[in-house]
Design brief:
213 residues; three-stranded parallel β-sheet; 3 strands
Length: 213
């Protein structure tokens, strides 16, 4: 059993190395590799984002790109954003089981300026007591699941890590009290850029099995 596991691990490692070598060889002609992950816009910080891997993933696409890109486990939808930035997908389908997160994505696509305005008001309102304000917003989000509240929480929570209580389903991640979250002008720029890139995309709350069936 140990020998079989060792052989499987070795083969997986070789496959990964071959894939990396292929991507590296093509890097000079592939801007999504040479530009680096920071060239890919992000609407909001999100732990586990595929942004750092998006260039490598795009390097495995057909040279002509794809007509429709489906991204289950979307999170920050980094692959879709990258694909649209580099014209490697005509349309995108964003999906995740996290319903509030998909609600946020709908707002980003349909009303980025309104969402930016609401974030700006919250960012300014928190100044007198950021710690208490964060807790108040978190409590309100757990009651209403309003998209702008989730955006604020993502910008201020520890390591941009979404965490829910397993029993109640409440968002329970604490605030990173060393910072106040991205400035409103930065958030507006991010939301506007990503919304523009993803125009025409679809958003759905569903698990990966349903989406890929």
């Amino acid at each position: 059993m140990r020998r079989s596991s060792s052989i499987l691990s070795e083969r997986s490692s070789k496959l990964l190395n071959m894939t990396t070598m292929l991507a590296t060889t093509r890097a000079s002609s592939l801007p999504w590799l040479s530009d680096g992950p920071r060239a890919i816009p992000q609407a909001f910080p999100y732990q586990g984002s595929k942004r750092a891997l998006a260039g490598l993933i795009l390097s495995l696409f057909p040279e002509e790109g794809v007509g429709r890109l489906v991204e289950p486990f979307a999170g920050s939808a980094a692959v879709c954003v990258a694909a649209r930035k580099y014209d490697m997908a005509e349309t995108c389908f964003i999906s995740d089981v996290n319903a509030p997160l998909m609600g946020l994505w709908r707002q980003i696509l349909c009303a980025p300026q309104e969402l930016s305005n609401r974030y700006e008001r919250m960012w300014l309102d928190q100044q007198s007591d950021p710690r208490k304000y964060y807790v108040r917003v978190r409590d309100e989000f757990n009651r209403t699941q309003a998209p702008e509240l989730l955006l604020y929480l993502l910008c201020r929570c520890v390591k941009a890590a979404v965490r829910y209580n397993q029993r109640t389903g409440d968002f329970n991640q604490g605030a990173d009290n060393r910072r106040l979250g991205a400035r409103p002008d930065v958030v507006r720029e991010r939301l506007t850029a990503v919304s523009h890139l993803l125009q025409g995309s679809s958003v759905r709350v569903a698990d990966y099995q349903t989406v890929l069936a």
